[in-house]
Amino acid sequence: MRLDELYKIVRRNWIVKLVCFVLAVFIYFFYFVATLKVKSLVVPLQVSAHGLMMPAENTPSHVKVSVKAHPQDLPRISEQNIATYLNLDYYTEPGEYDVPIEIILSPDIMGIDSMEVKVDQGSVRLAIAPKARAQLPVTANLQGTPASGYEIVDVSVTPSTIGVFGVETLLESMDSIVTEQIQVDGRKTSFSQTVAIHRDNSLVTYDDDSVKVTVDIQPITMTRRIVDQTVYLYGVHPLFAAHADPQMITFTLRGNQNQLGSFVPELHTVRLDCSTITEPGTYVLPVEVVLPDGIRLVSQSDRTATVSIVPAGEETETDKVVEVIEEKDVAGQSDGEVRAEGAEDAEQSDTAGQASAPGQDESETSVSETEILEEGSGV
């Protein structure tokens, strides 16, 4: 067929042919639209702020998206295939703007024919402001109190500072970053743990999500003054009696609250070592203060004491008391046995004195009578 004949055929009844073509296209699209189904999805709304500005207020977290496609294609489409975001990259001045919501489709659904995707809300009214950055110290959020007799000595955070990013006016109002709660109630020992940063404002982002917190817990230390503690003499030779000057001293101790508060001095707590003395005389000996582990001596009224050593039997009444106390401790005798021995000795002494007195009178009487008889015979 020649071109001129084809042209004549096309021009013949061309109006009718044009109307038929339009009707066919209309019917096709009508059928196409009638067979499509709509699926609604709730998609997270993100913000892209790689420029000079960023949101100065909270933005909607999700938006509703409508997807229209053939029924056989709808099951392939889900929230994971669609991303929505507000693009602030090109804004350079602070203020309020109607920012359009943009859509990104994943490659998994890009090949679906006859698919229509739209956001029910086309834009978001949003205030934007200049972004800023700062380095702020991190504070550990400790909750509770340690066990009785213990205290928190030190708290360290690693890293000690964290970089923060956000709206300039908001960062100017922040002076530190706080961690999530850390419980120290009833603890007796030091510990370390990784703690998350407490996020109370979504407009601020942090360089680190967590920090390492070390809490140093130690016993509470205290001082205590012991007044007039008797000086104990040990190692005295059985042939000697000893007397110390001073007989009592006062001293100050330091230790943890629980141990020092329950400490009770014993007979041997303050003592003098006389085991090296072999002859009577006067000696200056160091005062020993014997303490349990965990308690240390801070000060004492006397660091030395003068000890007088005399042969047994020549001691003063004070020396006798000291000797009796020492012998009782060494021999393991009770106070009743010592008193019984003292009473028995006293009773024997009194009996001997009473027995000697009558004998003395009789002797004196016999002497007197002899002198009288001799005088009588002489006359």
Give a quick rundown of the structure.
The chain has 379 residues and is α+β, with helices and mostly antiparallel strands. The protein has helices at residues 3-11, 14-35, 168-172, 257-261, 317-331, 335-378, and strands at residues 37-48, 53-55, 62-69, 82-87, 95-105, 116-119, 123-143, 150-158, 161-167, 177-183, 191-196, 205-206, 210-219, 221-230, 232-234, 240-245, 248-256, 270-273, 281-286, 288-289, 295-300, 304-311.
3D structure, described in words:
With 379 residues, the protein is an alpha+beta fold. The protein has six helices and 22 strands. The C terminus is likely disordered.
The span between the termini is: 215 Å
Low-confidence stretches: 318-379
Q: What Rg, in angstroms, do the CA atoms define?
A: 54 Å
Q: Structural class, judged by helices and strands?
A: alpha+beta
Global mean pLDDT: 81
The counted number of beta strands is 22
Strand percentage = 35-45%
Tell me the major beta sheet: 10 strands, mixed
Estimate percent helicity: 25-40%
- The global form is rod-shaped
Q: What order do the SSEs take from the amino end to the carboxyl end, as H and E?
A: HHEEEEEEEEEHEEEEEEEEHEEEEEHH
Count of discrete alpha- or pi-helical segments spanning 4 or more residues: 6
